[in-house]
Structures are given as structure tokens and as C-alpha cells.
Amino acid sequence: MEHGKDAKLVAELKNNSNPQKIFEPKSINRKAVFRPILTSPFTAKWPSISNADANMLFHTFLALLRSDRIQKLVVRKNASLPRQSARKTKLKNEKRKARLLLADLMQNGIAPPSTEACKAENGDTEAITPVEERPERNAIICGLNSITRMLEEEIADRTHSEISTDTEKHQPSMIFVCNADVSPTSLTSHLPLLVATYNAVCQRSVLLMPLPLGSQLALSDAVNLRRCGMISIDNEALKALKDDEIQSKVSDLELKFGKAEVQPIRMTWLEEAAATARSNKDHLRQKVPKMDLIAPHIKHLASSTPLDINKKKELKKAKRTERKVNRKARATAKIKKT
Fold first, then answer.
1. Where is the composition biased (Basic residues) (predicted)?
2. Residue 30 pairs with which residues in a beta bridge?
3. How big is the chain by its Cα radius of gyration, in Å?
4. Which of 55, 68, 132, 163 is the most buried (most CB within 10 A)?
């Protein structure tokens, strides 16, 4: 049942003989707005965590990030990624050297090496890479864009294959987000639905942890970055480092997550859709045909709002203060008369 302004708007809509008429505000100091009657049931919400539990989990996570092994890992990961312009210049120089070398070989009558030989050589080089370093490279990811790209790529890969065979990929277990410090909030508004989709498609239980206000500065300082508002960690990769200090801190973090009763984001309709897609083997073998989506029909109510909402709030506050003063003055005068 509607109350207040909604009830008034619904009554005006029912009494209006021509509902298709364009709505016009009665006052020139107001502008027309449209308020939706129905909300979408397909939206994912951020996990609700108390401030005490959020602060406890955040400080435990900071203690993990300040470990010497984690510090070296974060520094090496960011040091191995030079700036975009430097990468482009290096790639351009390598291509130019390859063209000059190929021209010299052809001029001297020497056959250039085949593509298969180059691939085999590169494959042998990759095979020499120690296996122990693989979990260390994929244990932690920093940055909103990097984590979003990682989740989207894994969802796309799992959509066309039943099981992921790449063991070197980062498999997130916990994602910490400073959503209270991000402005505008639309930069992180896609994360709950994206994580819910990842959990449904990839059959994992990734925890999304919103951090309290003011945590971005402490998080950036812990990883020695100028700005860092989002970090994803892989618990299995961290435990594979065979470091007793890191393993104990990861176990402590998991225990506190359990005490705080933080649950992974799950959506029933996503889980059922992913389960149906997995059960249908033909869906996994053949290309999914393009489907035309039906446009939603959500009713809106025509209303109005002040042009300067802040000025309107100040006027209301001033009127409330004036009424309070007058009420106090009348009470004082009544007491004096008695």
C-alpha cells in the first residue's frame, strides 16, 4: 500500500483522464522527474557487514599484506610492468631489429628460421621456468581494472568450456574493495553482480569484502602503491608458497571471515541458469545462437523536484528552526502568565 507522496501520485494518475499527456510541473522552480514504480529483481547488493567485523577483518588483512614475502611479491609484480609507452617503444625496436636481421639473412642467401622452430624454442624456454614460482606470480592482484578484467575473462572462458585447464590463472578467494572511498560510486557498482556471476559460472565461493571509510590510504600504504582501492588474493596460491607466517595469517583471516559470517554473493536465477547450461551438453559443444531480449515494461510516475534541491533543504531547515523557536517562545509566555 502506498503512503505519503507515492499515494498522492498514484491517486493523481488514476484521476487523470489522459495519462499519455506530457507532465509539466505546476511551478517554474521545479523540474519534471520520473520515479519507477517497480525495482529490478536482478540486482546484486553489497554484503552487509558490521563496522566492528569490517575493522577486524581489515586489520587482519593489513597484517598479511605487510609480510616480507608479500611485500616482495607486490613490488616485483608492479616492477615487471613498465609504462605503456615504454612497452610500445621496446616492442617497436624489437620488430625493427627482426626486420633488419631478416633482410640481412635473405641478402646473404641464408634461409630464415621457420615459425615452428621459433615456437619450439619459445616453448623450451617456458618449460625451463621453475614450477615453484607459478603460484607466487598469481597469488595477488591489485587494481580495479585488473581484477575486473580477470573476472570477465574467466567467465568468458568457462562459458565455452566445462572445466578450466589452466592452473596458472589467478583463482580469487577474497576480494577487498574500498567502495566507501571511491568517487563516483558507479566505478564499483558492477562488482556485486560480476562476482555473483563468477561464483555461478565458475562454481566457486569468492568473498566480496567492502572495506570501511578511510581504508584506501592504509591499503595503498601497505602495498607501497600511490593509490590502490581493490585487491584480490588467492588463498591456495598463498598457502603454496610454503611460508609458515603467511599460512598462519591466511588461516587466521579465513577463521575471522567465518566468525563474521561473511557469505559469498549468490543469486538463485544465476545459479539455475548456469546449472542448466552445464547440464546441456549440446550447449557446450555448439555455438549458442543469438537471442533477442524482450524489452522490459516498467511503469513510471511523473513527478517534480526542486531545481535547487540544496536550497530547498536549507529553507526547510530554517523553517523547522523558526517553528521550534516560536514554540519555545509560546511555552515561555504561557509559563509567565501562570
1. 313-338
2. 306
3. 30
4. 55
Q: What is the predicted pLDDT for the residue at 320?
A: 92
Mean pLDDT for 150-168 is: 73
**Distance between CA 101 and CA 121 in Å, rounded?**
18
**Residue 131 DSSP code:** G
Instruction: Write out the three cell numbers for 333.
Output: 509566555
pLDDT at 39: 62
Helices (H) and strands (E) in the chain, counts: 14, 6
CA–CA gap between residue 273 and residue 303 (Å, rounded): 38
| Long-range CB contacts (within 8 A, 24+) of 156-165 | 158/201, 158/202, 159/201, 159/277, 160/284, 161/284, 162/278, 162/284, 164/202
The answer to whether the bond into 184 is cis (omega within 30° of 0) is yes
The SS3 call for residue 62 is helix
Q: In this structure, what are the phi and psi dihedrals at residue 42, rounded to the nearest 5 degrees?
A: -100, 20
Q: From CA 65, how far away is CA 69, in angstroms rounded?
A: 9
Domain ranges of the chain: 5-38+298-331, 51-83+138-285
pLDDT digits (tens, 9 = 90+) for 79-121: 444 455 666 677 777 877 777 777 777 777 666 665 555 544 4
Section 38-61 average pLDDT: 82
Return the CATH number of 51-83+138-285, one of 3.50.50.60, 3.40.50.10300, 3.30.1330.30, 3.40.50.2000: 3.30.1330.30
- Region of 261 (left: φ > 0; alpha: ψ -120 to 50; beta: rest) is left
**C-beta of residue 212 within 8 angstroms of C-beta of residue 184:** no
Helix (H, G, I), strand (E, B) or coil at 69: helix
Whether 31 and 307 have beta carbons less than 8 Å apart is answered as yes
Crossing angle of the two packed helices 51-65 and 68-79, in degrees rounded to 10:
80
CA distance 300 to 38: 8
Cα–Cα separations (whole angstroms), residue 214 to 100, 182, 220: 54, 10, 11
Mean pLDDT of the chain: 75
